[in-house]
Amino acid sequence: MKVSAVHTHKITAQDRDLPALLDAYLPPLAEQSVVAVTSKIVAITQGRLVKAEGADKHALIEEEADYFLPRSASRYDVLLTITRDIIIANAGVDESNGNGYYVLWPRDPQHVANEIRAHLRQRFGLHDLGVIITDSVTTPLRWGVTGAAIAHSGFLAVNNFVGHPDIFGRALHMTKVNIANALGAAAVLVMGEADEQTPLAVLHDLPFVQFQDGDPTPAELSSLHIELQNDLYAPLLKSVPWQTGHGGAKASDLG
Q1: Helix, strand, or coil (residue 184)
Q2: CA distance 91 to 20
Q3: Cβ atoms of 137 and 149 closer than 8 Å
Q4: Contact status, residue 89 vs residue 41, Cβ threshold 8 Å
Q5: Mean per-residue pLDDT for 72-82?
Q6: Residue 215 and residue 68: Cα distance in Å, rounded?
Q7: H or E element at residue 62
Q8: For the range 50-54, what are the long-range contacts, defined as Cβ-Cβ under 8 Å and sequence gap of 24 or more?
């Protein structure tokens, strides 16, 4: 796998045309490449911005989150939330590289990923092309953030090895590899977290990626989500006092 970050100008509230940004900065793309776009510039171009001065950050987070833990649950003044089936700090609300604004998570990132893919396929005359929308996430009991994909298009997000033999012939019973998140981690690593000014990346030489001609189906997207009762971390997730936010989920969804 090879990953190359793409330098751009400073993306601000004045930038509202994402396809134009992609056209201005992406190099010619080859077949079976994956383009990574950070969720921040997607959100900025959508106008998903709230002036930080005078804003109630915690109210914003509760508005965006499906579920959140009370402020007193964290020593860092960070709300732990479940938002769009992802455990994420502050429901994705972030002030870094916002130039005086809180940047919210983008609207319908899956739709955006599909649209970017269609645009770039047409522009470069490609058949097999993937797109991921990325963000940074934390890992319990480990310092530091890594990247993840909050939306993908053009390839299978999960490679299922259930039933495949290991090197000694034992059939695997549970192993699935989240390809979208693995690509997101690699892309975010090279895009950086501070003043690198590289919100795009191109990944290629990807023999483990199964490209597909079409957007992810509703069934495929649904299959990425684990119901709480089936989740490995259910004992932890069900033992804390989640409160319902305004992101659209129902309290009953947490079981």
Answers
A1: helix
A2: 28
A3: no
A4: no
A5: 85
A6: 31
A7: helix 57-64
A8: 50/101, 50/102, 50/104, 51/100, 51/101, 51/102, 52/95, 52/98, 52/100, 52/101, 52/102, 53/100
Residue 216 contacts residue 36 (beta carbons within 8 Å): no
* Residue 245 to residue 81: CA distance in whole angstroms: 9
Cβ proximity of 198 and 8 under 8 Å: yes
Range 2-48+106-224 has CATH code 1.10.510.10? no
Domains of the chain by residue range: 2-48+106-224, 53-94+228-255
243 membership: H or E segment, kind and range: strand 243-244
Give ∠ CA 119-38-36 in degrees, rounded to 5. 55
pTM over 0.90: yes
Amino acid, res. 181: N
pLDDT digits (tens, 9 = 90+) for 141-175: 999 999 999 999 999 999 999 999 999 999 999 99
The Cα–Cα gap between 129 and 127 comes to 6
Tokens standing for residue 70: 């009370």
